Amino acid sequence: MTSFTVQPKQRVASIDILRGIIMVIMALDHTRDFFMPQQFDPTDLTKASTGLFLTRFITHFCAPIFVFLAGTGAYLSFSRGKTKSEAARFLVTRGLWLIVLELTIVTIGWSLRLDFNLVFVQVMWALGISMIVLAALIYLPVKAIAAFGLAMILGHNAFDGVEFSHVNTTADTLWRFLHVPGIVNIGDNLNVYVLYPLIPWIGVMALGYSFGVLFTKAPFARQKILIRIGGLAILLFIIIRSLNLYGDPQPWSKQEVWYRTVLSFINVQKYPPSLDYLLITLGVANLALAGLENSKTRIAKILIVFGQVPLFYYILHLYVLKLMSVIAYIIFKPAEAPGLPYTYLAWAIGIIVLYFPCRWYRNYKMTHKQWWLSYL
Q: Transmembrane ranges (predicted)?
């Protein structure tokens, strides 16, 4: 039976730190959702302030980096002597578990109720399906997996205009799950709101998996490669975005002042993630991984705690922020939604609250070996 041969001796700190950073930033976006619900898209430059836009934009980095690093983490985890059949089995079972969590615990965390008539599928669903697909892909050579991921990322915007003349047909329903966000009607009593269509998220995880090879190299060697890849991705973003021909369904345009024009330029589509969106976010991710290689600061040690228990953090942060928003509403009874400063304050308090249970659980995982720990 074929097995992985590379055996890293310990976790790669830069991956855990970067994952911790994006988990903290993700909480900012969800704090905004809970504390200052908007009646409009915060990236709509005709309505959003610069501060609100940037608050939303910075959180764009979370989902693609999280999915990408999930693939990288899978490669490193499975390179410690497991056979590919063992690795594939784990990917399938963990993927199914993430889908179950999305439809139950995560859904309740958002709304404190389950609505069996309207089901939302978001990032956990995309992660779960991507892991199941990756379970099949790992039998291919790493270069073939990388080519698959790149092809999906680079080419999927060519299909943006694909539509089916008859809705709710099998082809139309499948295409909506794959590439078109929105509500899918399944029967008379079930509607599924697909916020995270699967393409190109599957490709992002596949590419992240192939990048795991870099983290079996010496730190200095991988730093140079990561800098080159990150720099090239950002350069491609600037070139492709400048042309306004391909890479994002929404072209940028000149605004009333120069800095709003910059905002228009970086205002790229997340649902589904466009090529431009992935170039800028994953480009920055590669540069960050290179820059965090030797980080040993106190802040880095705190971020590692979050980065080593991402699923535990994700589930817990929804309930903590939801509870905080309910308490704040009961105490202050605001006549209108709080502004950004209050949202940032609530976010900071939430991160402090989350740190202690996350540290406890991280320490528990390090000192215990129960099988279920690999699923949470």
A: 12-28, 57-78, 90-112, 118-140, 198-216, 225-243, 312-332, 344-361
